[in-house]
Amino acid sequence: MNVKNDDGRKRRQKFDKPNPIDIHVGSRVRLRRTLLGMSQEKLGEAIGLTFQQVQKYERGANRIGASRLYDLSRVLDVPVSFFFDDITATTASAAEARLGGMLEEAPSPGYEADPMMRRETLELVRAYYRINDQQVRRRLFDLTKAIANASQR
Questions:
Q1: What distance in Å separates the CA atoms of residue 58 and residue 24, rounded to the nearest whole number?
Q2: What is the pLDDT of residue 13?
Q3: Quick one: CA dihedral 120, 122, 125, 129, positive or negative?
Q4: Angstrom distance (rounded) from CA 57 to CA 54
Q5: CA gap 23, 87 in Å, rounded
Q6: Residues 41, 51 contacting (CB under 8 angstroms)
Q7: What angle in degrees, to the nearest 10, is found between the helix axes of 40-47 and 51-59?
């Protein structure tokens, strides 16, 4: 959305909060970086940034440009589309609301983030894939499913 300056020129409207799409893309960068076991510092070095800049990208505080997103996709070994996968309807509608100037439609403060983005989930997945014995890994998988099913009864 554009607003006019005092001198009549148009400029982009600034918002207090990051765009929900930028937050989502940043969380996908963090997800992939964490799954690879890569530090923010190492990722920053690979694309010519400081770890503080990577932190801002991951929080959505700084918007990631197209060329930087391409660089990230190469370093993190995922297609560019990966960063936009799993965008929820809530995130999309909140971003659309910003375009229309209707910030009151943003997600409520009680909104629970996707459990796949939680650090605990990432650590669990990384630990699971560090188990070299395929049979042990399969048994752990079956055990986890059985416990989950039993707890839902």
A1: 9
A2: 57
A3: negative
A4: 5
A5: 10
A6: yes
A7: 100
SS3 of 73, please? helix
Q: Decide the pairing of beta strands 10-12 and 2-4.
A: antiparallel
In the prediction, which pLDDT does 75 show?
A: 96
Sorted by where each starts, the structural domains of the chain and their CATH numbers stand as: 2-109 (1.10.260.40), 118-153 (no CATH)
Residue 143 one-letter amino acid: L
pLDDT in tens, 73-111: 999 999 999 888 877 777 777 777 766 654 444 444 444
E strand map for the chain? 2-4, 10-12
For residue 45, pLDDT beyond 90: yes
For the record, the structure tokens of 79 come out as: 């297609």
Q: Residue 128, Cβ neighbours under 10 Å: how many?
A: 12
DSSP reduced 3-state for 68: helix
Sign of CA dihedral 45, 48, 53, 59: negative
7's tokens: 């001198």
In the 8-state DSSP scheme, what is residue 110?
T
Separation of alpha carbons 33 and 27, rounded Å:
10
Residue 17 structure tokens: 């909060």
Q: In the chain, count of helices (H) and strands (E)?
A: 7, 2
